[in-house]
Amino acid sequence: MLHRFDKMHGLGNDFVILDARSKPVTMTPALARAIADRHRGVGCDQLIVLSFSGSADLRMDIYNADGGGAEACGNATRCVIALTRVNTIESDGGLVRGAIAGDVVEVLLEPPRFEWNRIPLAYPMDATVLPLAWDELGGPAAINVGNPHLVFFVDAIDEQRLRKLGPRIEHDPAFPKRINVNVAVLRSDRIELRTWERGAGITLACGTGACATAVAAIASRRAVSPVRVSMKGGELVIGWSPGEPIVMRGPATHVFNGEIDLEAIS
């Protein structure tokens, strides 16, 4: 049976979006991996499945390229809002609100969580500066912005080192649900960021990574809100005040749509 899909991206972080409200979809990790495969499937960093929600305009379920689930995805949220024109989205990371504002999409994420058991960490630690290190990367901040993130502030970004250390940190026993890894450089007018995404690897941009990094910078008084966060795929503007939702502004691009035979690809 053929299912319609839309291919979209937020700053190069790309998604296959399936709307299961009109035609039900039974998703499995194996099927998600097959769709995300860039050689034998459609290809994407994350697969997004939309369905009905009792608490929002729709529900968004997120599958990483490895087939594992993710609680939240900032870039995908902007894409779904641009595609469907809804204002509220339910996900495992909480309720997000958004609207199209000119040529960008503005999204409000729930306030970040800093408690060790809400990130979550395997045992109590000071989440503002974790007493942990992986080679030269040490003392990160840990934050949950709908999904769990570490933020390392460094003098220079070494993408090859991130590619090597990313999976090691992601799967460290200190993080029972695994974790996303951000390395950031503070510039005079922006934050430069690279992210190792849990279950997807290094991506051109990470919306929740940008949010977590901006929050960490603002909370530690390294930066003042709003913050420009620059990634390989482009730039987001992140605003946050303690106790308030996170505001993310950035583009969402529709690439193409098509039909896929889910039985044939699985």
Fold and architecture overview:
- With 266 residues, this protein is α+β, with helices and mostly antiparallel strands.
- It folds into 2 domains: 102 residues, Diaminopimelate Epimerase, Chain A, domain 1 (Roll); 112 residues, Diaminopimelate Epimerase, Chain A, domain 1 (Roll).
- 18% of the residues lie in helices and 39% in strands.
- It contains 5 helices and 19 strands.
Query: C-alpha Rg, in Å?
Result: 18 Å
Name of the CATH architecture of the largest domain: Roll
* Category by helix and strand content: alpha+beta
Overall morphology = globular
Give the beta-strand count: 19
Major β-sheet profile: 17 strands, mixed
- Give the oligomeric state of the chains in this entry, treating copies of one chain as homo and distinct chains as hetero: single chain
- Helix-strand topology string: EEHEEEHEEEEEEEHEEEHEEEEH
Number of helices: 5
CATH superfamily of the largest domain: Diaminopimelate Epimerase, Chain A, domain 1
Query: How many domains comprise the coordinates?
Result: 2
Task: Give the integer mean of the pLDDT values.
Answer: 97
What distance lies between the first and last C-alpha atoms, to the nearest angstrom?
A: 12 Å
Helix fraction bin? 10-25%
